[in-house]
Specification:
By secondary structure, the protein is of the alpha/beta class. It contains eight helices and seven strands; from the N terminus they run βαβαβαβαβαβααβα. The chain is 43% helix and 16% strand.
């Protein structure tokens, strides 16, 4: 695994524990020589994880739409900053260059980014691991919702198993190393081939 995209909040959250864990994840990525791919901002958990990777001597690739750069939130000390035209292009570029995806706590934007790459994995558009770093039990309700989806048969168990979760950066990175993607879902029957 050479690079991991991290989705997370542009704020620090209500507790200092979120920033502490973002920093810990950044240090863990740098220690394992895994490049950080992220949204390119200098603020919130986004800035914290990027700064931690950089301070530990690691590589950071930011992907930022130009309209956000003009709002002066671009991180100016990255290894590389890729400017794109739209939020859609940002997600596409991050997905293209990352070998896996981790969601730290965040708001609707973080959820949207995570769900898109997770859905792409479920459809077989990529075979990269998707993880939730469950800091301070933040993702407990979402993990319960995934369980409910499987119980109510809106998600097959093999796809529920794709929801990798851990409370530590080391734990989630270990799961990424051992990840084996499930077979792709298909609606084509033997009569159609």
């Amino acid at each position: 695994m050479k690079s991991i995209a991290v989705f997370c909040g542009s704020s620090d959250g209500a507790s200092a524990i979120y920033r502490e864990h973002a920093i810990a994840l950044g240090k863990a990525l740098a220690a394992q020589e895994i490049s950080l791919v992220y949204g390119g901002a200098s603020v919130g958990l986004m800035g914290a994880v990027a700064d931690a990777v950089l301070h530990a001597g690691g590589n950071v690739i930011g992907v930022l739409p130009h309209f956000l750069q003009s709002r002066e939130i671009a991180h100016n000390s990255l290894s590389e900053l890729i400017i794109v035209d739209s939020m859609h292009e940002r997600k596409s570029k991050m997905a293209e260059i990352a070998d896996g995806f981790i969601a730290l706590p965040g708001g609707p934007g973080t959820m949207e980014e995570y769900f898109e790459v997770f859905t792409w994995a479920q459809l077989g558009l990529h075979e990269k691991p998707c993880g939730l770093l469950n800091i301070n039990h933040y993702y407990d309700p979402l993990i319960s919702l995934f369980d409910r989806m499987a119980e109510e048969q809106f998600m097959q168990q093999k796809y529920r198993a794709m929801v990798l979760t851990d409370t530590t950066p080391q734990g989630i990175l270990r799961q990424f190393t051992n990840y084996i993607p499930p077979a792709v879902k298909t609606y084509i029957t033997s009569k159609q081939t």
